[in-house]
Design a protein that fits this description.
single chain, 377 residues, Methylamine Dehydrogenase, Chain H, nine-stranded mixed β-sheet, five-stranded mixed β-sheet, 30 strands, disordered N terminus
């Protein structure tokens, strides 16, 4: 909620702000650095969808999607590379998904607004989704139903897609929708009906698919042309909040809480409280703040390990901050820096167990950091 002074305030006590003095509870060292190309890399993501591929990750930059594997001893092996036919494409985001038969897909989108579903088995395009009227800023996968992906776009909408049938099921936009670019979107980890989105209108919105779920089910058995599917508009979120005073470029659920990041050098952990009487309006209870110095440019996204024990986020100076998520006050586990890592880190990827941190940078480099395990303990 915004008070009369414009300051944000929560319901309970003041939020607990983490100290930037590193606890050094964890130690990581650089084990690899790759120069992928000259163009900026905007996204890097591990595959948490399929346990066979937990050490596989994808990056996007320019018109290229590259798939790698993290091996022992810091080795990064290139598995495959997909180059889009459009030389002017610039991919901003990639997510792992899978077909109903378990085939792994890499789903990428960017400046052209077209979403490519790439079959990671044969490097061929399985489907192309056309619908967004402008660039795609983020794609996320529903881990409970990994054939469902959601996309956030500059066209002020969020769309739900079925990668198996190629159908656009729902469009979250309209009267109660975002009023500027949508920069980030995330599925609730356990409530299959809920998503959260945020963007350049400084708001975070929570949407429910509950009343439209029959259309989601219908999308799996649809046999006619995808264009003939009765795509539905979801015009009103169940919750709307201004937690930040500026662009919100990354949001992730932490259970029923939300972690969100703006360009004001911090990640905020807060609890959305929906007013039952007036759906759409919400109260914000800010619980914790995780400072990230020199993180005042937009489109820097953080990542968490599978169990949400840690969050890793880069900054515009090539440094990485690793915060412990399950502690109060927040604990800075490690601060990673290297003399040659000076370029803005657009995204990090945290491995399944948190032992490997990857970063992809504006200068086209990928950095791999591995946890140093003390053999005497």
């Amino acid at each position: 909620m915004v008070g009369e002074t414009g300051k944000l305030f929560g319901l309970g006590c003041d939020p607990v702000v983490g100290s930037l003095t590193s606890s050094k509870k964890k130690e990581y060292r650089v084990t690899n650095r790759l120069q992928e190309g000259k163009r900026p890399l905007y996204a890097v993501v591990f595959n948490f969808i399929d346990s066979r591929y937990f050490n596989v990750f994808a990056t996007v930059g320019g018109n290229r999607v590259t798939i790698y594997q993290c091996l022992e001893g810091g080795v990064i092996a290139v598995l495959q590379s997909y180059v889009d036919e459009d030389k002017d494409e610039s991919f901003y985001t990639v997510s792992w998904a899978c077909n109903v038969d378990g085939t792994p897909f890499a789903v990428a989108g960017g400046i052209n607004g077209v979403i490519r579903v790439i079959d990671a088995g044969n490097e061929k395009i399985h489907k192309s989704f056309v619908g967004h009227g402008d660039s795609v800023n983020e794609i996320r996968t529903q881990t409970l139903r990994p054939s469902l992906v959601i996309s956030a776009s500059k066209d002020e909408s969020v769309r739900l897609w079925n990668v198996h049938t190629g159908i656009c099921i729902l469009i979250f936009a309209g009267a109660g929708g975002h009023r500027n670019e949508v920069l980030s979107v995330d599925f609730h980890p356990s409530d299959i009906y809920r998503i959260a989105s945020c963007g350049m209108d400084n708001t975070v919105k929570i949407w429910s698919m509950k009343e439209f779920w029959s259309y989601v089910e219908k999308s799996f058995t649809w046999t006619d042309l995808p264009s003939k599917f009765p795509t539905k508009y979801v015009q009103f979120p169940v919750y709307n909040a201004s937690v930040h005073l500026n662009y919100v470029d990354c949001n992730r659920w932490l259970g029923d809480f939300i972690l969100s990041k703006s360009v004001d050098n911090e990640i905020v952990l807060w609890e959305p409280k929906v007013k039952e009487q007036t759906p759409g309006e919400g109260v914000v209870d800010i619980l914790q703040k995780y400072p990230i110095p020199e993180c005042d440019i937009w489109f820097i996204k953080f990542s968490c390990d599978f169990h949400f024990n840690i969050a890793a986020v880069g900054n515009r100076e090539g440094k990485i901050f690793i915060w412990e998520l399950q502690s109060s006050p927040p604990v800075l586990l490690a601060r990673l820096s290297h003399p040659q890592s000076k370029s803005p880190i657009r995204q990090t990827a945290t491995s399944f167990d948190g032992s490997t941190i990857l970063s992809c940078c504006e200068d086209g480099t990928i950095w791999r950091w591995d946890e140093v395990t003390n053999s005497s303990t």
